[in-house]
Write a structure and sequence with these properties.
The protein is of the alpha+beta class. It has 15 helices and 14 strands. The strands form four sheets. It has a five-stranded antiparallel beta sheet with strand order 1-2-3-5-4, sandwiched between helices.
Length: about 525
Amino acid sequence: MQLLQQLYARHFGSEPVTTTPLQGAGSNRQYYRLFDKEGHSVIGVVGTSLDENHAFIYLAGHFGKRQLPVPRVLAVSDDGLRYLQQDLGNRSLFDALKGGREAGGRYNLNEQQLLMKTIRMLPNMQIRGARELDWTNCYPQPEFDEENVLFDLNYFKYCFLKPTDLDFHELKLEANFHLLAKDLVAEPTDSFMYRDFQARNVMLDAEGNPSFIDFQGGRKGPYYYDVASFLWQASAKYPEKLRRKLIYEYYESLKHFTEVPSKRHFVQRLSLFVLFRTLQVLGAYGFRGYFERKRHFIESIPPAIENLRQMLATVDFPYPYLVDVLRRLTMLPHFAPEAQPVVRTDGLRTTDSNVYQAHRADGPATFSKYDGKGPLVVRVYSFSYRKGIPEDESGNGGGYVFDCRSTHNPGRYEPYKQLTGLDEPVIRFLEDDGEILTFLESVYRLADAHVARYIQRGFTSLMFSFGCTGGQHRSVYSAQHLAEHIHTKFGIEVRICHREQNIQTTLPATGALNTKQP
């Protein structure tokens, strides 16, 4: 860091007032933010590879000449291992999309607009950025080729597949690897392949305009790769409808820069790169997670496996043995879909004797006969108002009753009349419309506070009921989603009754929050 500060002083004529290290991701490069006395900042980079540094510096200069939104390189050390670059701020697209990720992929309109703005700019970087670019400056190789593909596929085999102890025939798998590699490089291209195009590498200014960083691994290659990398980022959880919309935006933008294939051909080619990119990232997650024990990469494995599972269910890939191995991989017990980690709330123990903080002049509090009995069981109902509000079987007099009839009713439309709020077309209708999501946001806040307090006091029963006209669409959707939300967040037993549909299910307790402490 001292040598980086010396480079700063040499360039600006004075030493930085403050130097703050920045958190890295998957690379060994070190990043710092260096401030002057007026609060202006630049980014300092310390790299371990001279060739990698050279690639970034060359590409940044080339893209800058083509007026692409990338940081300017301000100064480079004599040994080439350190350099200063323009600071594009501390708000990345990844940060801006936090709400949608944490909502399980329910991105709001503003978040979707940021994604569209970014994906529309990608062809500019790929096609215009490739013009007059000297590919020999790229690191670690100038072009995406078959050897490159096979290296990454074997990286997946050795760093991810083999550690699972899944049985497979190496020669048969290798033969399918070669077929996939040949298909991926079958169409020559003159575009710049960013290679690490993801939300963390897109910086946003105050108006939400994107700029691009960390492109030092780029090379000549197919533009499909970056689309796959961006839209199938495991942790992003982009819903399929949003993915299709973003692919369309990219395809339409690409037309302004180059001649494009038919939509059918484009989608077919893209699916191959999605498969390859998924195996590639699993290899990286295996190495960084299983061998280096980095938590972020371990946590990224389940959503990547889920991407793979969905892909195999929807695309017919012409690699039978590879597909067989991957299907068996997704069926391994430790990759089975699991509930999200339980979110603990401080103090939620049923043995707490001081739930309410009383003033000392009031004396000790007395307790209800229901206190400390636990564990809490939540019951969630859907019903039709025509047939009355469900009775409370516990004898406690009932709990919350929510009226869903103010929200848009899919039951008014013929395609949904025979379906319920558990069916995907109805779910998609309600979520695309959005009214039900706004309604449930308020319900979740009430429910979370109530459940947390009931757990703390050791109560045994709480009831939520959702009513609509027929007890078929809106109430069923709302009851199911609240039940799953409570079970995921608190780990307690939740019993679901869709009364008019004659459906009853139980989500069993995980024991995480509702177990009494000795």
